Every structure is written in structure tokens, then in C-alpha cells.
Amino acid sequence: MLSSINLIVTLISIICIINCVICNQVFTNSFYVHLNGPYGSDVAHRIAQKHGFINLGPLLNSPDEFHFLHRALPHSRTKRSISHTRKLKNDPQVDFAVQQSGFKRVKRGYRQLILGPEHLSLNQEPSDPYFPYQWYLKNVGQNGGKPKLDLNVEAAWAQGYTGKNVTTAIMDDGVDYMHPDLRENYNAKASYDFSSNDPYPYPRYTDDWFNSHGTRCAGEVSAKRDNGICGVGVAYDSKVAGIRMLDQPYMTDLIEANSMGHEPDLIDIYSASWGPTDDGKTVDGPRNATMRAIVRGVNEGRKGLGNIYVWASGDGGQDDDCNCDGYAASMWTISINSAINNGENAHYDESCSSTLASTFSNGAKDPHTGVATTDLYGKCTKTHSGTSAAAPEAAGVFALALEANPNLTWRDIQHLTVLTSKRNSLYDSKNRFHWNMNGVGLEFNHLFGFGVLDAGAMVALASIWKTVPPRYHCEAGSIQKTIPIPSNESLFLHIDTSSCAGKDSEVNYIEHIQAVITLNSTRRGDVTLFLISPMGTRSMILSRRPKDDDSRDGFTKWPFMTTHTWSENPRGRWTLEIKFDGDKPQKGFFKEWTLMVHGAKEPPYKDLPVLDKNSKLAIVKKAHELAFTH
Ligand SMILES: *[C@@H]1O[C@H](CO)[C@@H](O)[C@H](O)[C@H]1NC(C)=O
Ligand SMILES: *[C@@H]1O[C@H](CO)[C@@H](O)[C@H](O)[C@H]1NC(C)=O
Ligand SMILES: *[C@@H]1O[C@H](CO)[C@@H](O)[C@H](O)[C@H]1NC(C)=O
Ligand SMILES: *[C@@H]1O[C@H](CO)[C@@H](O)[C@H](O)[C@H]1NC(C)=O
Ligand SMILES: *[C@@H]1O[C@H](CO)[C@@H](O)[C@H](O)[C@H]1NC(C)=O
Ligand SMILES: [Ca+2]
Ligand SMILES: [Ca+2]
């Protein structure tokens, strides 16, 4: 039942994406083929051959959905290949066939100069030569950093957790699996190359080492300890798989879907450091098959516990908003932002209410403060960068938590993240976004989510964790009415909700809130949206995007998400504020707002012992108990 409701939520998201498709469309030589029966791969191969195609295999192991390629067609063209599609459609065993459109997905790397070696005299432990440069693992103030502002991984290692028996897949431009610091932790069985359809996701050579991204991410998770090579991974005894999927002229829905659905029982965590172009004007997200792959991953992957999808929140800087990126903003992904070594946000960081937590990356004035990790062809680097470098650190921390408790579900990992991330000394360098307290006493920040991951605290809580009660989805209310948005003041709309009280889908403890919104305006980038919860928490669900000059598409059923109201009671009055923020007066029309509440009916932390009276767990439990005695 849960998954059928998830499907409805999925459909809501799909409809909106269809509406956001760009005008200059590109068509690839890939075709989605739906057979009219579960005939399997042999029949699909014959059909492909008969019509001059190659069958690349099933979509998500399906017996009736396949990925065909036509080698005589160019990788991309601006016209549909009607005759090729017709050939397939006219086959008596084919239900329908769709030529795949191509779109852009870009790596979230911020490139900068390669630096010469520099020697630090630190108490080296682990003994790996680059460990002293890995300030994100152990910050002792090197290069102007703030001591103890780090992932606190040594505390997790000291508890005996190093990632054993956990696999993280790096969905990227390949992994140098012969690298001496990675080779022993490489999980070949869980790896695949979807860019060239073979089991060997080795990066393609280019003179500028453009395809070093995946290898750098892999080392952050899983580089070996005490072997005299490079540094150490956050989870240095965990396995890493390579899923090569970024290195072809255009991305297609089928490549994304097969990547995100690859071996969901062998892979625990998928790490993605890419997404729609971070140009501050794109509104885009996962399409049909990819959305299905994610939903299947969280509902069925890891033998039903759910795969963990970790996402880099985006490198679009202050002019972009990661709630316009349907991957980062999804409830099923954990979106991770970055801070630099003194606690400031990085200058390329985006902000949005769907970010759950943060880790670390480059951007400090001292250029020796990039992320040290493995590099192509057996080398090491100190300059991995962007929110790209932040997401794999989180994947490594989650691998430690999964070793501490292999029973954790995808939701448990999100709850643990909320409860153990720390404000530490993170702050907004421009002083726009402050730390606020939500209705149950959880501190959050529009840039950093619930703060920086704390591996030591996370594994400690994971090891005594009790799986949270079942998840429900409540449509809390909807307003469908065309209302002009005033150009000089805010439009306020209200939904009063019982949060499905008395129904099967009753939610009393919020996890994710979605505001599914349709509107148009003469300048989309000047529209700002705020959502205020019944307990008074104000989330900015859309910030000003000065580069977004769309005046045609607006937003169509776009699911803006906030994590800020985590664990609050959803009952009462929700307010949506719509306001133009720009240089010139604009016009626009609000059309629809549907409020979706996702979370638990029963109190999530009831059976957990409180070991520390000052912990967030203690604070939230107290808030929940008070709410109950009222
Ligand atoms: C490792 O993980 C596999 C698959 O999840 C599981 O079947 C096996 O029992 C685990 N082994 C250990 C030693 O925990
Ligand atoms: C994708 O979803 C839309 C809307 O649900 C549907 O019209 C379309 O046929 C789907 N495409 C594929 C390839 O399944
Ligand atoms: C995981 O679940 C199994 C079966 O429910 C149980 O026997 C085991 O003790 C659990 N392990 C942990 C670490 O909670
Ligand atoms: C906004 O403009 C309208 C119409 O010109 C006017 O009635 C209203 O008082 C203005 N509101 C503010 C806050 O300036
Ligand atoms: C926005 O919606 C209004 C009301 O439905 C409509 O009159 C207007 O033409 C739309 N504007 C654009 C640019 O689509
Ligand atoms: Ca090493
Ligand atoms: Ca973005």
C-alpha cells in the first residue's frame, strides 16, 4: 500500500517534469521499447535484430521493457526518427516504443589549480601520506581551519566501525579501479558501465583528465588505510562500486534509471555528484523511468530496507536554488551541502529548504584546503572540490552507520542525520541565513540543513536505534483557484488541516513536507515562496533566482520540499506566502497549491533510550511527550 501511494506522489512529480521540458529538444539513438507481453531478453534480442537495433538489455530487470540502440543513427539529432520508431511500433510483439530525448547532466566540480606538495608536521594517525591534508576528517587547524570542525570520524573508527560489508556506488564518469588505494575495496560485481555498456567502468582518457571526478569521489569513501598511498576513506574498509554513466554526449532517462536501479541488493548507498545544469535558471528533475528506479530503490532495495541515495545539493552559488533541482529536492535522496574549513558556506553553495545536512569542501582563501583524495592513474590529489566532494563524505558516514546497524532503513538514516548533525561553527558568510529552531527544538539553517554530519554521534545512536514506525502520506489540503499575485505585496494563502486524522494515512510526526505548486509569472526568477507551519517554522521554499528570466513555463505541479519542519505536528494552519522580489514590477498568477505531509503516525523515538540529556533526541522526545499530554 505504501508503494502505491508513493506511485501517486511519483506521478505528481512526473507530470510537472513533462511540463518543464526545454524547447530545443534533442533525440538520441536510444529507444525505450515496451513489449506486449513478458517475453524476456531472448525475444527482445530477436526483435531488435529484425529491425536493425541492438538490445542493450532490460530496464530495471523488467521482462517487457527494454533499451534498444540504433547504431546507424547519430548520437543526437534535433528531429525524431519517425521511421525507426514506426518499425518497432509495427512489430506485433511490441506494445509501444519511444525514442529517448537527450538532456544535460553536469558534474558538480569546481575546478582549480593543481598545487605543489607542502609538508605539515602533525601527529599522523592513520599513517597514510595525505591524511594530514584531510582536514575534513581531522581538523587540527591546518591551513587556517577551525580545529574540531570536521566529520568526527575518528570517534566512529574508535567504536570499531570502518564500513565493513557495506557497498557505496559512485554514479559518475567511471572509477580507476586499478588504483592501488582503491583496488582492494573495489566491488566489481556491483559495478557497471552504462556509458559504453560493459562491466568495466574505467574512466575514458582525455588530456585534461576531465574524467577524474568519479575516482576522486570513490577515494573519499573507500581509500585504504595505512598502506602508504594517498589518504584514507571515511569508511576505509567499505566497498566501492563504479557506475559509469556521465560520459556520453547526452543523458537519457534509461541510462539514469538503469544506473540508479543497478544491483539494489548488492549496493547499499548510491552517491551522485551531478544534476541538471546549475545555471540558476533550469527547473528540471528525474523523468519517468528514473523516478520509478528511485521509488523502487527506496521501497525494495537492500532487501526491503531501502537504498540510500546521497546527492550533491548543487554548485550554482547564491543565484540558484536547489529546490528547482528535482533530484536534490526529492524526499528519497539525502541532499548534502558543503562548508569550508572555518565553517563558512562555500561561495558555490546553493541554498534550499530540502537540504538535509552538510559536509566539507574547498573554497577557503588558502588554496591548500581542497579535498585530498585519490586521483586517476594511481595518483593522489589535494584539490577535489565543489558539493561534488561533499556528497561522497556523507556516503562514507552513512556506510559507517550501516555497519553499526545493518537493519537501518532509508528513513532511519535520515532520522539519524537530523538527530546527530551539528551546528558546530557553521555560518553564512553573507549573514543572510541564520540558525533557527523549529517547533520541536531542532536547529536548522537554510544553507546547511540540520548541520554538519558527526560520524561518531551517528554510529553511537545507530547502534541502539529502533526502526521508525511506518510512513504515511497525507494530502493535507489543496487550493485550486487562479489568483493574481500582487506586484508590490505578498499573497498569503492558508490551508487548515487535520493531517488525515482518523484515516489510514494519518500523519502526526512530520518527515518531509511538499508544497506542490502551479503558477506563472512574467519573470519566474523574481518569484519567492515561503511556507509557514502550524508550529511557526518558516521555510523559504523558493528564493530569488536573478538569472531565471522564464516568462512562459512558470511552475507546473512542482513539488517544493522542506525538511525544516522535521518531527513537528502537522495539524493546524499552514500558510503559503508568495512575493515578487526583483528590480522591476512583475505580474503573475497563482493557480494551485497542494500540501503533502509525509511522516509517521506513531511517535518515532518512543522506544529509544536517552543517554544524553542535552542531545537533540532528548529535546525532541520531550517535545513529543509534552504534545501528547496536552
Ligand atoms: C554482509 O552483507 C550481506 C548482504 O547484505 C549479508 O548477507 C551478510 O550476512 C553480511 N555479512 C556480515 C559478515 O555481516
Ligand atoms: C511517461 O509518463 C507520461 C505521463 O505519465 C506518459 O504519457 C508517457 O507515455 C510516459 N513515457 C514512457 C516512456 O513511459
Ligand atoms: C537486525 O534485525 C534482526 C532481525 O530482526 C535482529 O535479529 C538483529 O538483532 C538486528 N540487529 C541490530 C544490530 O539491531
Ligand atoms: C500596492 O498597489 C495597490 C494598487 O496600486 C495599492 O492599492 C496598494 O496599497 C499597494 N500596496 C502597498 C503595500 O504598497
Ligand atoms: C498565466 O496565467 C493566466 C491565468 O490563467 C493567463 O491569463 C496568462 O496568459 C498566463 N501567462 C502566461 C505567460 O502563460
Ligand atoms: Ca591509503
Ligand atoms: Ca542547481
TrEMBL record:
Belongs to the peptidase S8 family. Furin subfamily. The active site is at D172 (charge relay system), H213 (charge relay system), S388 (charge relay system). One of its GO terms (biological process) is peptide hormone processing. Its main location: secreted. Keywords: Cleavage on pair of basic residues, Disulfide bond, Glycoprotein, Hydrolase, Protease, Secreted, Serine protease, Signal, Zymogen. It is an enzyme of class 3 (hydrolase). This is Neuroendocrine convertase 2. It catalyses: Release of protein hormones and neuropeptides from their precursors, generally by hydrolysis of -Lys-Arg-|- bonds. One of its GO terms (molecular function) is serine-type endopeptidase activity. Residues 467-603 form the P/Homo B domain. It is found in: Secreted. Its EC number is 3.4.21.94. The keyword Repeat does not apply. One of its GO terms (cellular component) is membrane. PROSITE patterns: P_HOMO_B, SUBTILASE, SUBTILASE_ASP, SUBTILASE_HIS, SUBTILASE_SER. It comes from Tetranychus urticae (Two-spotted spider mite). The gene is 107370069.
